[in-house]
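DM from R.C. (forwarded with permission)

"hey, sorry to bug you on a friday — could you get me a structure for this? deadline for the figure draft is monday and I only need the backbone to look sensible"
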Amino acid sequence: MGDTFEITLTNGGTMGHSVDFHAGDISPDQAMRTIAPGESLVYRFTAHRSGIWLYHCSTMPMSSHVAAGMFGAVMIDPPNLPSVDREYLLVQSETYLAAPSPDQPDLPEGVNAVVDPEKIAAKQPSFTMFNGHATQYMHDPLTARPGERVRIWVLTAGPSEGLSFHVVGGQFDTVYKEGAYQLSPDGPGNPGGTGGAQALDLAPAQGGFVELDFREPGTYTFVNHSFAEAERGARGLFRVQE
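My reply, with the result:
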C-alpha cells in the first residue's frame, strides 16, 4: 500500500478503448475516458487499500470488451502478509462466441470467432475460464509438495458470472475476501484454529485468496463449484508430488 501507479494506455486497436483500475479511488472523468485509435492517456493513482483489484476496459458495450479479454488484476498485499511456499493467481472470466460464419461452416465454435452481444445478454457463455484459456490447467497442472503452504489468489472478471472456488480433497484454513480475513487459524471466531472452509464465493469484480496445505500426494481438482461453469472450462488440477 502507498505505492503510486502510473500507467500509459495507448490504443493500438480499431475502436475506442479505456481502462478502469478498481485499485485506484480517483475521478473517472479524465483517467477513464475513452480514447480513439492511435491516442494515449496517462492513468495515475495511489494504492491506499489492500486486496486483489480488477482492471478492465470501461468503454461501452463494456460487457463485450470484458468478454473479449480486456481485463486484469492488481494485487496489493495486506500488511504483514505471511510468506508461503507457493502462490498462484487465478482470474475467472467467461466469453460468448458467435457461431462460425456462413462462408466457413466447417470450423468449430470459437475458431476465428468474435464476441456475440446477444449471447452476453442471454447469459449463454461459450467458455468459462481461468486465466484466459478453458481447461488449460487440466493439461498443465499447478504443482505443490505435501505439507507446503499454498496461497491461491482468485478474482472474478466476469463480465457476468460469479465463482464458488473449491479444491476437491482440500480444505481452506485461511480465507481472505474483499480486503478482510473471513477465516484464519488464529483469528477471532475460530477457537483453537479448528474451523475450515470449503469454498470462496465471489460475485463479479470481487476477489480474495485462500490458503491450504495438501496432506498427501495426489491429483486435486479445483473448480468453480457452480458446475455448469466448471463444465464450460472453469476447472484445473493441482499435482502434488514428493
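R.C.: lifesaver. The chain has a mean pLDDT of 94.
me: no worries. The helical segments are 28-31, 62-67, 117-122, 136-139, 227-231.
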